[in-house]
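Handout, page 2. Input:
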Amino acid sequence: MDQLLQSDERLDRLISHDLNIIQSPSVFSFSLDAILLADFAQVPKHHKGKVVDLCAGNGVIGLILSQKTKSPVIGIELQERLANMAERSIRMNNLQDQVSVIKGAIGDVSNWIPKDTVDVVTCNPPYFAANEKSTRNPNQHLAIARHELHTNLEEVMKVTSGLLKMNGKAYFVHRPDRLLEILETMKAHRLAPKKLRFVYPKIGKEANTILIEAIKDGKDTGFRVLPPLIVYNEENEYLPEVSAMLFGKESD
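Output:
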């Protein structure tokens, strides 16, 4: 197993799904946002569907989704090093017959995946607009993952809509301060917002994350705001719902 790791990498275990994930603090380590998105996304359980994860990073979302469906899961990742990490994690978990990763820009995805053929698209995109004055990470790997340097919200929604079949579902994790922009951009690309969930670090704090579901060519009616998700208690321990995502449900 060690020969699959490079010098700056470590192996993390996602206990809830019995998965090993290759991580690197100098290149990319998934955050709780990825776990929240993978839990939030609803995928077909059968083997006849197709699931695509855009901005796949080190592949953690695709790996988790593979435990929820028998259908193929395809990750798209621009950065070669991250795509390579994802490929090695896929092999390490013996999931190469179901999960794959394509190294390339999401704007080129139609070169590999035909339009209107995908049942579910997930995406944990860069959160920060390229012109935002937030401090940009000097580490280029991390900067690309967090800032819209090589893609943006407009392209993410356009590509998602192009991939999805009619009534296919899309799932995103993002920041609350861009919610209005997200909703407008979705609707401009035939994605009808259907479910929204706000994630709060603690009770009494402002939401710092949103999870949102959309349906391609869905009706404008039926939009739902789900109960809030609180991550930590006052002792900075994970509350039961989040703990179950990370460590599995405790047996009674």
